[in-house]
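quick one: pyridoxal-5'-phosphate bound model?
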Amino acid sequence: MNSSFISRRAREVPKSGIREMFNIAQRLKDVIDLSLGEPDFETPPHIIKAAIEAMKKGYTHYTPNKGLIEFREAVAKKLKLENHIDADPETEVIATVGSMGALSLAMLTIIDPGDEILIPSPGYASYKSQVLMAGGKPIPYRLKEDDEFQPDVEEISEMITDRTKAILINSPSNPTGMVFSYDVIKEIADLAADENLVVISDEAYERIIYENAYHVSLASLPGMMHRTISIFTFSKTYAMTGWRIGYAVADKEIISEMTKLQEHLVAHPSSISQIAAIAALTGPDHYVKMMINEYAERRQIIIRGLSKISNIRFLKSLGAFYIFPNISMFRMSSREFTMHLLEDAGVIVVPGTAFGRFGEGYIRISYSIPRERLKEALERIAESVERLK
Ligand SMILES: Cc1ncc(COP(=O)(O)O)c(C=O)c1O
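yep, here:
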């Protein structure tokens, strides 16, 4: 087809940085994939049962564009209890198509052409694309290993211009696996208030944290609810990536605009997924605890395994199911190193540059994979790295 048919907007959005790797992996045998960005568990059975019952009970029609009120009420209860956020289920909550759906609605709601949005780098790759799709300008702020990948709020404040509209934060963080401290969250809140900025807070991994780490929702800080769009999902906590269900919480005016846009984009997330999500929030929690405990065991395996490999340096991540080792001592780009691991060890990891230019010198390893496979992958990496010396 004639490429002049393609909009500038579509052309501007970058292709995924990891496609090339998967194409190569297709040709290889017995590859261990440590690149997964989703739980390897099945959705807990009571959630599946609720979805089947929902279909039988006739939840097969359109729902309100904001989502079913039962869904929003269950969410508001959870927000109060777990996130210390007081949200009115009638006006301040919207059900979305995963957190991706919430992110895109948030961007479309607040961005005017040329508005600048501060996004983390390394950070989840969709942030940049979502900002571009909404006509904004993504401005990466650097998360440095020396700061344990916590944002440097002073540096961020120096990046603010009269076009800056919002700052996006993501804790627990993909790809670094780090959890922002209360102090950092508070500093960001103060900065946003001083500079009259919106905060978009992506809390996709809120429950998946280890040791004594704790999750702070920025919107729970005094006076922050009205300038924060908090984004949550069922994908990671409940192993429900395919169900495409999440939600956003914000001031009623923002939610009203997001609802209007959602009506014309996708109408609403699946009615069946909304009912399943209510079961997730109100049903037994032991499946979630089991999954988190299992990630915690795997995290120990990966920390022990990587510690034995010389020339790989890493911080012990405290959240999500990622670790983000520094491989710069090998004097290879993160892409070259990743390709080496794939071709020499049959192990797939993600180059840090897939998460922005400040990801150079790092790789992301996901431990959303059974323990035995993880152990084998670590052995293969150790042997393969020896061959690089
Ligand atoms: C930080 C972060 N935000 C959002 C998402 C999107 O998740 P979903 O749309 O399934 O809720 C992901 C998925 O990997 C993620 O890592």
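The first strand starts at residue 32 and ends at 33.
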